[in-house]
Amino acid sequence: MIKVSVVGAKGRMGSHVVDAVNGANDMELALTLDAGDDLTLITPDNTDVVVEFTVPSVSLGNVLALIAQGVDVVVGTTGWNDEKLAQVRQAIAEGPKPETQKVFIAPNFAISAVLADYFAAKAAKYFESAEVIELHHPTKVDAPSGTAIHTAQAIGAARKAAGLGDMPDATETDGGSRGQVIDGVHVHAVRLRGLNAHEEILLGNAGEQLTIRADSFDRGSFMPGVLLATRKLATDAPAGLTIGLDQFLDL
Question: What positions does UniProt annotate as the active site of this protein (predicted)?
Fold first, then answer.
């Protein structure tokens, strides 16, 4: 049995993780911690894998503390950037088990979103233009979403590898309406009551358009990916920092 502790257990996502772990026949729930609880309660003696689902403002500190405890961590909180990731890598190198420590961070745990991201990167080199639209509920605290950032980075890398130049865009002044530019890709964020988590990738050539869309209508859609990542960290995932659920899928 994989002993799983959940940090952020009372949150919107964390509560779903608790239910998913309780419903898995190869896992048992160890500890459930939330804001203000002592993370040093989580140790390798009582926990195989920690699932951390909190908010961007505290997630880095939580992950660094858990690394210091010597436990492996699956991170679902978004809001990561290169600077924060560098701190995680440094903490692993300086932690109690640098040769075996595992940390996994996923921009998105929905299989549909991971595949959409993968397909977009494969298609990007064939199209002159590409833009990303992400749509979420209005209580989401970060924008654009980590998934959209990851998608734009993947598109940008694919275009660069293919030797493509800048995308056509005659806009002179936009007042911010053209969205954030990430690796040359415009990313637009929508926050609307009634939505959950959605992403649309638009790719265009003269006379044609490809639309790739992923929709998560319920937070339960993320749980198969969370359990997959947890199982991988408990078994054969590589040591160090791994980013993206695509690393654990046979793509």
Answer: 136 (proton donor/acceptor), 140 (proton donor)
pLDDT at residue 175 is higher than 90:
no
Is the pLDDT assigned to residue 146 strictly greater than 90? no
Is 84 tagged catalytic?
Answer: no
What letters, b where the CB count within 10 A reaches 16 and e where it falls short, cover 204-232?
beeeeeeebebbbeebebbbebbbbbbbb
Nearest by Cα to 65 from 27, 31, 103: 103
Pick the CATH number of 111-217 from 3.40.630.30, 3.20.20.140, 3.30.360.10, 3.40.50.720: 3.30.360.10
Strands of the sheet containing 49-52, edge to edge, are 27-33, 2-7, 49-52, 72-75, 102-105, 240-243
Which of 84, 125, 140, 160 is the catalytic position? 140
225 has binding-site annotation: no
Q: pLDDT tens digits, residue range 187-236?
A: 999 999 999 999 999 999 999 999 999 999 998 999 999 999 999 999 99
Q: pLDDT category, 141, cuts 50, 70, 90?
A: confident
In terms of DSSP bridges, do strands 180-182 and 185-191 run parallel, antiparallel, or are they unpaired? antiparallel
Q: Is 184 annotated as a binding residue?
A: no
Catalytic residue among 3, 136, 186, 198: 136
Q: Is 140 a catalytic residue?
A: yes
* Cα dist from 230 to 19, 41, 73, 74, 79, whole Å: 14, 20, 8, 7, 20
Residue 174 has pLDDT above 80, yes or no: no
Q: Is residue 104 marked as binding?
A: no
CATH H-level, domain 2-105+220-248: superfamily: NAD(P)-binding Rossmann-like Domain (3.40.50.720)
